[in-house]
């Protein structure tokens, strides 16, 4: 869920009142919490669009605590994704055992099950065994039959993001970032990815290391954070994952990719072979 940043002193006044009542009710229902009012809030770092906290309570068993994840939605993110879509996706995944369970909702956030697993690091993506687990889990994710329309969202999003970027950029900034070139490239890519041989699946669209967790006892992978998830060409999701290997979200410039770290041909082929070996709808 992200690395621990710091414990916040006493807790409640920093959280929405309605959410605090939900947290206390959860703790009371568990029955083993010493005092539902004695909750500790720990800020987690690494989240880009939300404020994410770990909430924990001491229990009657020594050195054991109850934990949940508390998420406050970021402001101004509607330009990037539809929050209602993300919530529907989270609820579907929760019901089908594909991610953390939904424990509670409040107007500007939610409370999630704490997964006893480790969030991956950038170097984990290059580990051959972990990469193989990710490839298989990605295929399973792509084969999910999400309710609702199964329309490709990629091109609409790219055009919308480009429109916003141009509206916020000075002419020299637009030129430096080649925004006009991007506008010309989108229809070219759209035509290529609209061919009949392209497999369409339910894509995560943000499969960076901070959104992947591993249970090191069972070697099971859990994919979290579905803000950008939608139906898209699965080739896009695979390519995006490769690009995420060039990212470091724990620097002052998380948006700048180091393509010296981009996986080589052999590494990409190994990932795709594992992906294709996992049985599913796209062969």
Automatic annotation (TrEMBL):
Taxonomy, superkingdom: Eukaryota
Pfam families noted in UniProt: Choline_kinase
GO MF annotations, alphabetized: choline kinase activity; ethanolamine kinase activity
One Gene Ontology cellular component: cytoplasm
A single BP term in Gene Ontology: phosphatidylethanolamine biosynthetic process
CDD domains assigned: ETNK_euk
Record's protein name: Choline kinase
Species this protein is from: Carya illinoinensis (Pecan)
